[in-house]
Amino acid sequence: MHTDLPTLGAPVMIGGLAIGLFLCFYGSKARKFLMPLRSVFSGALISLTLALLAINGKAVLSALAMADPFSAMYDLLWDAKDYTHPLIYLISFSTGGLLMFFLSRKQQDSIGFLLKILTGLSMGLAIFLLLRSLVNLPVSLLFSSIILFFILYLCLRGFDYYVALENALAGALLVSYMVTRFWYLDIWLFFVWATLLTVLGMFSQVRSLKKEKEKPTNNE
Hints:
By secondary structure, the chain is an all-alpha fold. It is built from 8 helices and no strands. Helix 2 packs across helix 3, helix 2 crosses helix 5 and helix 6 runs antiparallel to helix 7. The longest helix is centred in the first third of the chain and has 34 residues. The mean pLDDT is 86. Keywords: Membrane, Transmembrane, Transmembrane helix.
C-alpha cells in the first residue's frame, strides 16, 4: 500500500532528514536547549487541541476521517468566513505555549508532574497526526494509543531516559516519514525504518546519558 499524498521536494526532504537524524542520535546532548522548546510545543499543541474540540469537535472528527486530514484541518483552523474562531485558536496556541514555557522554569514537584503528563500527551498526539497521514483513522488511533500508554509510563518513571526515547522516536519517525513520502514507499517500510532507527537512536542516547551521569563520580 502506497501513500496517496503528493511527494516531498528535495530541499524539504534534506532538511527533514538532517533534523530527524540529529534528534534521533544526538538529541540528548542538546536537551538544555530543546526542553524549553519542548515545553512550548506541549502547551501550545494541547491548548490548541482543547480549543478545537471545545468549539468544533464534530468538524475535527470529520476532518480526521478525510483522505487528506492535514488540508481539512488547515481549512478548519483558518476559516475565511469567520475570523472569530481562528483568533481564539491563535490565542489558545500562544497562551498555552507561553504558560508552559514559564512553568518549565519553576522547580516544583507538582509542576514537574504536570510537565511530564503534558509532554507525554503532546507526543502521543503528534504521533497520531503523523500516522493519520499514512494510514486510516482506526489504525492510527490504535497504534498511537498503544504508544501513548508506554510514553506516559516512561515519562513518570524516568523522565531523562524518556526524553532520550522521545528524541529518538521523533527523529526516527521524521526520517522514515521523509523517506517514505519522497520515494512513495510502502507503509510497512515506514514502520520498519521507524523501529530500527528508534532502537539505534535510543541505544546511542542512553549510552551518552550514562556517561554524563558517571562523570561527577569519576571526578571525585
